[in-house]
Amino acid sequence: MRKVLVLLVAAALTIASAQDYVFGITFDAGGKFDGSFNEGTWRGMVLAIEELQAERGLEIDLLEFEGTPETSAGGLRTIAGQNVELIVSPGFAQADAVAAVSNEFGDTFFVLIDAVVEAPNVRSVLFEEHEGSFLVGFIAGTLSQTGVVGFVGGMDIPLIRNFNTGYEQGVLHACPECTVISNYVGVTPTAWNDPARAKELATNQHAQGADIIYAAAGASGNGVIDFVNETMCYTTTRTLRSTGLAEQVAQIDPSPAYASACGADAQPLFFIGVDSNQNPLGDIDGNPDTLNHGLTSMLKRVDVAAYDAIMDVVDGTFEPGTRVLGLAENGVGFALDEYNEALLTDSLLAEIAMISDMIVSGQLVVEPYSD
Amino acid sequence: METVVLVTLAASAVRATTPLLFAALGGLFSERSGIVNIALEGIMLFGALTAALVTYYVELPVLRETPGARVPYAPWIGLLAAMVVGGGVGFVHALVSIRYKADQIISGVAINLMAIGLPAVILTGLFANSTTSAPVANRLPSWTLGPLTFSPLVYGAFVLVPIVWYVVFRTPFGLRLRAVGEHPEAADSVGISVIRMRYTGVIISGVLAAMGGAYLSIGAFNQFITEMSGGRGFIALAALIFGKWHPLGVLGATLLFGAFQALETQLGGAALLPPTVVQSLPFILTMLVLAGFVGRAIPPKAIGKPFHKG
């Protein structure tokens, strides 16, 4: 086993030395294909590398490390020791590791996402999650028929509170009389991996009237999505708000499961996804043209941050320091695609565009979370 | 509070109790025989993983033929496989603790660590990612009994309580199991095979804990997610102690902890108590019990001690 490992490392080194550029990426938790945050960062790097290879004929290699917050310093060191130009580390839990390793390898550039390390060779990228969450909150507040919407956060930390507060402001902006129920899966890192608990939270929120639930909970969020996809609809005796959602839904063919489980007086349930576009997960019958339960997703463009970092290094324009990506920089936004275009009317989209402009110009201020 | 909210809360508590109950009743068999089993957490994860993978691969060929087809037997095969694997992991713990007389805590910790690392390797091989399995189309069904609608495993867990009580306190097997946990030398002197009783106890604990894990992956949900047990194995262990190694005590303790969990999700941010306190309540209560402040918990006398046949 050790021999194989030595051979592999030697092979990696020889390949590395023949390249024009070598980049690295380290994951702290959740793995490469988490379907959202890590995967988005990785895809941004891959896209940049593919473009550079195709358009400028550069030879580029990408070294990867999948670990935990405890091991990521080791992974960073291993990669940094192989003459790489740039290492991207997505995740606030890698901040200490990046701080330590960037100090040891002064000639390597580092990009840290979701936390700040101040060093001459580190670029820290933060996102205005509250701005993107405001937009999806506005959509939820506009369309909620019960006047109650839910928020399920993963681990209860300021970063996720920031999603929560932006969402709440967005909901109340569209519908001042609406209620937002907020719950967190837990207070330890296991909160990211506990779909069963997230599903109970969604069940409880729905029992309290929520018809749209926003999940910002990593892999636990799948529990919320599972609840919505399984339950699909509700009937209620309370008076519903007239939001145009029912009319919109009436024009869409129901999925076979929806048709058999939900009667004519039933109203649909929706989730809002996070980080990557999770709209396709609401397509329970594999047919985007029938009713899907993903209302929209709050997009956090980690892919853009990773892409830009590579391009800046290759162009020689890499600047350290802290970058904050919000609506103005297209760093956050909401997902619109074939899965939800039938749900969001043109007039709603126009309103969102207007609000978005107001946030960018500073006319409308979305308050971030503060302790 | 509205009735509908209360009903949801009660149902939520019952569902939260289910995996705890399976694991705690499993732990009861192991600890009554004299073997500490802190590997419950890891065994749950192995059970959850196996159930999700086997269900997925059983339904896969059918779904390839006819997309969207129901494969009602797939999750049951998944559950069965989880029980077999759980028993297997229990056997490993038994082998290390009984045959090789290693420290039972260390063996348990090793299994728990393996349950975090090994699934990542398997998932990377099968699905090119280290954290989630592909969702299954056929999870365990929901059974409606009168006003109740739950997964069959939920009913199973509660039905198991009187069965375990009967087996442990009313059968010769149960008497022997308790005897080897209390006084293995005495049991040995009357011809009971201490070794065999202990193997059996630990393997049963593995089977039951794995059922709790299977409930998490294919009962309450439709895929495996790494570390999805979220400490339930440890809470089950606390419930076992809090319940004084008695099936009815265990039922009460797991129901209490399940209700805490449900209540905490209900209270959420606007809590009377901070969630941190609610989440640590099972452990705080258990420590109080162990310290003798709330009743007294007397563990099986020979627990944790390897048996040396004279």
Can you give a write-up of this model?
The complex is a heterodimer of chains A (371) and B (310). Helix content of chain A is 41%, strand content 20%. Chain A is an alpha/beta fold. Chain A folds into 2 domains: 2-127 and 302-325, Rossmann fold, CATH 3.40.50.2300; 129-299 and 341-361, Rossmann fold. In chain A, strands 2-1-3-4-5-13 form a 6-stranded parallel beta sheet, sandwiched between helices. In chain A, strands 7-6-8-11-12-14 form a 6-stranded mixed beta sheet, with helices on both faces. In chain A, strands 9-10 form a two-stranded antiparallel sheet. In chain A, β3 (86-90), α4 and β4 form a beta-alpha-beta unit. In chain A, α5 (129-143) runs parallel beside α6 and α5 (129-143) runs antiparallel to α12. The radius of gyration of chain A is 22 Å and the shape is elongated. Chain B is mainly α and 310 residues long. In chain B, 70% of the residues lie in helices and 2% in strands. Chain B contains 11 helices and 2 strands. Chain B has helices at residues 3-32, 40-65, 74-99, 104-127, 152-170, 172-182, 184-189, 194-219, 232-242, 247-267, 275-290, and strands spanning 143-145, 148-150. A two-stranded antiparallel sheet of chain B has the order 1-2. In chain B, β1 (143-145) and β2 (148-150) form a beta hairpin. In chain B, α1 (3-32) runs parallel beside α5, α2 packs across α8 (194-219) and α3 packs antiparallel against α8. Chain B is globular and about 60 Å long. Chain B starts with a helix and ends in a 20-residue tail after the last helix. The model of chain B has no long low-confidence stretch (mean pLDDT 91). Chain A binds chain B through residues 30-35, 66, 156, 181-184, 186-188, 190-191, 193-197, 199-201, 203-204, 207-208, 219, 222-223, 226, 285-286, and chain B through 4-5, 7-9, 11-12, 15-16, 19, 67-68, 120, 127-132, 216, 220-223, 225-228, 230-231, 261-262, 265-266, 268-269, 275-276, 279.
